[in-house]
Amino acid sequence: MSIKDIDFINDWSEFVQVVEIDPTGLCNLKCKFCPRSTFWPNENKHMSIDTAKKIVEHLKEINYTQEISITGKGEPTLHNNFVELVETFYDPQWQLKMNTNGHRKFHQYEDFILDHFTLIHYNCYESKQQFKDARFKYRRTKNVQVKYRPEMEWYEDHSRYTNRAGSFDMTDTITSEGVCDIPFKKMFIDYDGIYRLCCEDWAEYINMGNIWEQSFIEYLNNNVKLKQYRDRLIEGDRSMSPCSKCTYSIKHNKRPVPNYERMKIWKWMSRTENLGV
Q1: Contact 147, 123 (CB under 8 A)
Q2: Which tens digits make up the pLDDT trace of 227-241?
Q3: Treating both helix axes as pointing N-terminal to C-terminal, what angle do 82-89 and 49-61 enclose, rounded to 10 degrees?
Q4: pLDDT grade, residue 76 (50/70/90)?
Q5: Most buried of 131, 187, 245, 264 (most Cβ within 10 A)?
């Protein structure tokens, strides 16, 4: 794949599989593989309902049908208006997902969460007993996946954790696979409506624009910064920061996007159509 290949794509919204929302600046844990264990602060900041409604407006505009992840960089159930936020994003048109550590607030909203989310990743970070108890409790609940994720040093398992785009000083583990799929397959929207480059970028936290000035369709197809990153990453060039310090590999994700074979087909179709074939 090369820049020339992706020049034939007119609408990048069709490649987005995940729109991740960062609902709150709060978390009640400091896991060792997360920047919250070192430099990332706990901040009492929350996505407003107006911002959520604007995001939904953009989603409807592109007829989005994939996954909305209300997760971000904290514990989503700590949002100061969690119920209304979820109700704003709830729509049968797409799948609603959440990652949670299952502490306190989760149990307060448990019935509501089970009714509204298509998929809940219930992550047990503290003990095997917590994992066993949760797995038993939700053994017949189809939309809950209980996972055991002990608070290990992040670098002990490179297959599961990255260095969060240079947030942890382990640059010697940077992948030789330069191509990255995140800017093609995923959008990350901060609590205040700012588009962020990706969910891995904690250290630089690059501002790519905002939902009030660019709709999803405009951002995905016309944002100059986003195009610069895509043009380089599709060629395997990670020289731009924070990509130059990132250990993320496509192998970390089980749903590799973009669909390179599909892109090749689109390229062929565009050329034959132009030739009147």
Answers
A1: yes
A2: 999 988 888 899 999
A3: 10
A4: very high
A5: 187
Q: How crowded is the C-beta side of 83, counted as CA atoms within 13 Å? A: 6
Q: Write out the DSSP string of 7-30.
A: TT-S-GGGG--EEEE--BS--S--
H or E segment to which residue 50 belongs: helix 49-61
Amino acid letter at 193?
G
Concatenate the DSSP letters of all residues of 166-209 into one string: TTSS-GGG--S-----HHHHEEEE-TTSEEES-TT--SS--EEE
User: pTM, whole model, 2 decimals?
Assistant: 0.86
Going 94 to 95 to 100 to 102, the CA torsion angle's sign is positive
**Distance, CA of 108 to CA of 110 (rounded, Å):** 6
The secondary structure element, H or E, covering residue 220 is: helix 216-222
Q: Give 64's contacts (C-beta < 8 A, 6+ positions apart).
A: 13, 16, 19, 93, 94, 216
Q: What is the mean pLDDT of residues 93-102?
A: 96
Distance CA 198, CA 189 (A): 9
As beta bridge partners, residue 24 has 46
Of residues 248, 262, 83, the one with CA closest to residue 181: 248
DSSP bridge partners of 187: 19
Beta partners for residue 178, in sequence order: none
The sheet carrying 207-210 orders its strands as: 144-148, 119-124, 95-100, 67-70, 18-21, 186-189, 194-196, 207-210
Whether the pLDDT of residue 127 is over 90: the answer is no
CA distances for 212 relative to 54, 95, 232, angstroms: 8, 24, 27
